[in-house]
Amino acid sequence: NAGVTQTPKFQVLKTGQSMTLQCAQDMNHNSMYWYRQDPGMGLRLIYYSASEGTTDKGEVPNGYNVSRLNKREFSLRLESAAPSQTSVYFCASSVELQDLYNSPLHFGNGTRLTVT
Amino acid sequence: GIQVEQSPPDLILQEGANSTLRCNFSDSVNNLQWFHQNPWGQLINLFYIPSGTKQNGRLSATTVATERYSLLYISSSQTTDSGVYFCAVGAKPGSARQLTFGSGTQLTVLP
Q1: Is the Cβ of B44 closer than 8 Å to some Cβ of chain A?
Q2: Which distant-in-sequence residues (6+ apart) come within 8 Å of A84 by Cβ?
Q3: From B9, which residue of chain A is nearest by alpha-carbon distance?
Q4: Is A103–B101 a contact, with Cβ atoms under 8 angstroms apart?
Q5: Per-residue pLDDT for chain A (116 aa), expressed as one digit of tens each?
Q6: Rounded distance, CA B92 to CA A101, Å?
Q7: Which residues of B fall within a CB distance of 8 Å from A45?
């Protein structure tokens, strides 16, 4: 199993450019997430999708949009990149059935994005 | 929201030594997970452990929910154990949407 696959691994953008980060999971998980990781800030949730067709804002959603294309795929779009969006982005997924007491979070390998 | 504090922030060990990493949290939790981020940036889930004790090879974890802390034990450490160890906590069982991540413990294992 590939688990959670993210593309691209690295990206450099100029301020104002747009791009989409792709994420796919093959574990038949219900929920998917986008996080950003910044030095000294830990991991912060940008958006999540509890199931196909639903998306909700996390802690830091401004400047981002998401699409849950189907159960496998969850993309993150930057419409007009800003230097403050320079970060490492992680996609994650989990089974997340209601009140399931064993629903570990599985991460992709990350995308290192630099906005100049 | 729930506050999470990890200690120590940095730890340097010789290969073969044992270590204990701590995660304190400020409120009741029903979701607690430990992760290892290796030097290449990959995040691996080690344990889902809102209470009790689990073991996986040289790693084990114990969460004492009533006293609001969790411990991650690494025995006979190896250089491949180097990296950052994060705990993440949340109030809702099985749900990652409310997880709060700690700032991590940076572990360096020297050969």
Answers
A1: yes
A2: A63, A115
A3: A40
A4: no
A5: 679 999 999 999 999 999 999 999 999 998 999 999 998 778 999 999 988 889 999 999 999 999 998 999 999 999 999 999 999 999 999 986 655 666 789 999 999 999 99
A6: 9
A7: 97, 99
